[in-house]
Amino acid sequence: MSPAFSLCVYCGSKPGKHPAYEAAARAVGAWIGAHQGQLVYGGGHNGLMGILADATQAAGGRVVGIIPGSMVEREWARHSCDELHVVDTMHERKRMMMERADAFLALPGGIGTFEEFFEVWTWRQLGYHDKPVGLLNVAGYYDRLLAFLETSVTENFLGDWQMDLIQADTQVPKLLQHLVEAAGLTAAPRLDAL
Length: 194
Known about the structure:
Blueprint: E1 6-10, H1 19-34, E2 38-41, H2 47-58, E3 62-68, H3 69-73, E4 83-87, H4 90-100, E5 103-106, H5 111-126, E6 133-136, H6 143-154, H7 160-163, E7 166-169, H8 172-182
Parallel strand pairs: 1-2, 1-5, 2-3, 3-4, 5-6, 6-7
Helix pairs in contact: 1-2
């Protein structure tokens, strides 16, 4: 049976300092699995990435990992993915993640998460895709980023219409349901998940 939706999630390869980050990664994975979805992510087994993938599979969801060969060689790959694609470059990884996803979500993370989030948001504003983009603001992690983005609007470097292309929220179910519905899909819970 094919998944009801494919959600690409960007997040840290470290767990972060606040326990809420790990809890959010587990909640996102559990929601994906419980709603017959598929996780598309960077293919790692460390930090929030591994927690997210484990939670998705534990809840009955599929996991598609996409990772450059250089990271596999460093033993960063999660070999228990339902699909693990090893690619040559980061550009190929990000392109494949974008193609395999119906929507995108950023959890807390570092520079890689920021770069992927901003790139997929930029691609959306340029019309390279029309898929929903979300930002899960866990424990206020993205408060200052969102405030800075509002400053960019005030200073006329961003428009309100660009800000409207992303959906930020603190609540996992609400945000994920919104992203799936904005992609024109349905995220119904599995009967055994009720």
